[in-house]
Design brief:
The chain is an alpha/beta fold. Helices cover 37% and strands 18% of the residues.
Length: 318
């Protein structure tokens, strides 16, 4: 089916459903939350209590200004949904312990990750889109839904964060055009900037500084690796930005942030600058993502994971 046909089918399924859930991935970021709350707000207005905006994880405080933030609930194992809309998830496992919400439901998969396997019954998977927020915008326009300031704010947050404030090469002319239209709707750009980019908590800043002291370089400073162990007492801190900072060092092509999230459970974030496809690297470890930003999780020790990563990246940098 083409895009228009998929939108029409989505509308039919939503109209017929008695209960609808909308959910996104664990470890939420600006794109998944902006997409969740923009589409969730629209559906709440249209379908009322038929809609549950579901959170699969704790939501960072800096996003609490987004529309319907206070309406997000944890999925109830006893609630059965006729339709579940999954946003910004490369695969179902990124829903974590709440993957069960898909059971028996018509699954609508909206995503831009190149590694997405189109697991939905209805798939809006476009890897050439800058963000899931950009796809949500196009769906709403196709449905002839008026996008007001409240919804526009959520979509702008989604697009801005997943393009690195329009710096990454997933940013296109169309991305800028959509952002311009959202600005025309009167969104408060200064407030968005302060809330999303200029509200780092002091403890998070101290963690950032402390963690970066562990940076190591390999292959003539073209690979940067930062490790953070659970034993340092900062496991719950916001780690956003660490891997990007390492990537932005002038000699670095690939940056890697290796974080122990539980004992012998390691989360790896990968970023590249110019020519290395980190999605292919992540796929070697059953992960996924984008050409310039990807990740995966392994059950092992930090040192073992680091050794595996160094050997794999050598194929691209060696």
């Amino acid at each position: 089916m083409n895009f228009k046909e998929n939108v029409n089918l989505l509308k039919i399924k939503l109209d017929k459903a008695s209960k609808i859930g909308i959910i996104s991935h664990i470890k939420p970021d600006g794109d998944n939350l902006g997409s969740l709350f923009s589409l969730g707000t629209v559906l709440k207005r249209q379908y009322g209590d038929k809609i549950d905006i579901l959170k699969s994880d704790n939501i960072p405080d800096k996003y609490n200004f987004l529309s319907n933030y206070n309406k997000a609930i944890e999925p109830n194992k006893d609630t059965n949904y006729d339709v579940v809309i999954v946003l910004d998830c490369g695969d179902e496992k990124r829903l974590g312990k709440y993957e069960h919400v898909l059971n028996g439901a018509v699954v609508v998969n909206i995503d831009h990750h190149i590694s997405n396997k189109s697991f939905g019954d209805i798939n809006f998977v476009y890897s050439d889109a800058s963000s899931t927020g950009e796809i949500v915008y196009k769906i709403l326009k196709q449905m002839n839904i008026k996008i007001d300031q409240e919804i526009a704010t959520c979509i702008y947050v989604a697009i801005s964060t997943d393009t690195g404030s329009f710096k990454y090469d997933n940013t296109t002319k169309e991305t800028h055009e959509i952002a311009g239209k959202l600005l025309d709707l009167g969104i408060d750009l200064n407030n968005i900037t302060k809330r999303v980019y200029q509200s780092i908590k002091l403890n998070d800043a101290l963690y950032f500084i402390r963690t970066l002291k562990n940076i190591e370089f390999f292959y003539d400073y073209r690979l940067a690796i930062v490790c953070s162990s659970n034993v340092n007492g900062y496991n719950n801190q916001d780690t956003e930005g660490i891997v990007e900072y390492a990537r932005d060092i002038d000699t670095v092509e690939v940056a890697c942030f290796i974080k122990e999230i539980e004992e012998n459970k390691i989360k790896v974030s990968l970023r590249s600058k110019s020519y290395v496809d980190v999605a292919k690297i992540a796929e070697k470890f059953d992960g996924g993502g984008h050409v310039r930003a990807a990740g995966f999780t392994l059950c092992n020790t930090i040192d073992c994971v680091k050794d595996k990563i160094i050997l794999e990246i050598e194929k691209y940098l060696g």
